[in-house]
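Write out the 3D structure for:
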Amino acid sequence: MKPNILLVVFDTARVDAFEPYGAPAGRSPVIADLARRGSAAPYTMSTAGWTVPAHVSMFSGVMPRSVGLGQAHEGGRQCRPVMEDLNEQGRILPEVLRRNGYETQGISANLWIDAHTGFDIGFDSFQRLDTRRIKADFWEGRRSYVRWMVEALRARLDDGAMAAERVMEDWIGRRSEKPFFWFINLLECHSPYMPPRPYNSMGPLARMRAAHDVRTYQGLEPTFKACLKHSVIDPDILARLRTLYTDSILQVDAWMGRILDMLERNRLLDDTLVIATSDHGENLGEGRLLGHAFSIDQRLVHVPLVTAGPGAFDRPGMTSLRDMPRLVADAAGITGTAWHDQDLTTDVALAEWENMLEPGDPRGPELLENWDLPEDALRRLTVPMTAAIDGRYKLLLDGDREALYDLSVDPLEAAPIADPAARGIPAEVVERLRAAVRSTHVGHASMPEPAAETSDEEAELERQMRVLGYM
């Protein structure tokens, strides 16, 4: 009998925020118990440091650069034609499962993971949830600022978790006799971090201070400025950010517990493969970085992967999110897919960051002037990065600059190794990483023209992306 499959993506969740990966006891008890009943893959790497390319890999098994989706411009409207093409190649996981007898349902709180970007392909139904971020408009004027501060004071609303729970209850009530594939993307761990009570551990005044921090440090412009300038962030502000982020992890962990209980009550849990992962992590001041931009450091690309139930993944070595379709297909007993030519025994995973601007783009010098950025910020805007990781060593190709790190002694990637041989690192280790990183660094697919949209649709999409800090 084919197992049910529940794939939960805790958007922006760092691996070290969870107990199976070193977080203190009590920070994520449900995920810890899930790992004890199944498996926590120790080395799972995202293919990118942000949502769209990571999900492209998770849904199709390809590296994002190979299909031109390392970045998503024009509100991501060029994504859908790429996803449609991948579907024609038999590479979209929900469609493959549907063709093999699965009922497929999806929910997303992230507007990047939606019909306009093609992530609804293969689902019998797909729903994007409104979040308080979209409703708050906390970047726009004094009135919206006041609303946001009141929301922080009350601390009652979440960013889709309760709504997702209600939708899943409805799925259970309406499900057929087919096995199901359910996909959920939750945005609770994404900035701005403002979990509701009882998960929010701050008092009213601290919550309002943190809400004010949001306008200063967690929009697109302040995040980009901080990363491009390598700004020193006030330690009190960082402490608030880190506290609320930790609280948000506890919130999604508790949500996961309620979902597992729901499945258990309806006698579905024993027949369900539960997969809990993330698309990428988050920087909380490490390396003077905030959010998830201009980097593919380990805080962004090392992600959790916890599975339990029939077909739970046994992955003691290196895993990539691009392995997800093949691993799910194997658990479902589906063979002969486009992913079955993939080598799952490789000990090297790849991650990519695509340059946001092409060299010579006039917007680059304009940003330097308008944001008062240092000259080297232009390079960060216009140079791609690629990393190859084998668990201990990481080779980063930053444009034409190469840097090797020993993650076992330098987890923050602060001190590149100048002479690997002098450190006793075998030449074949370096060459294997170098070959992997160069295979994906050179060249990328051209992006298709975005699909046409009405001006009203485009305006609303751009408004929501500004609210979420994406534009």
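The two ends are 46 Å apart (CA to CA).
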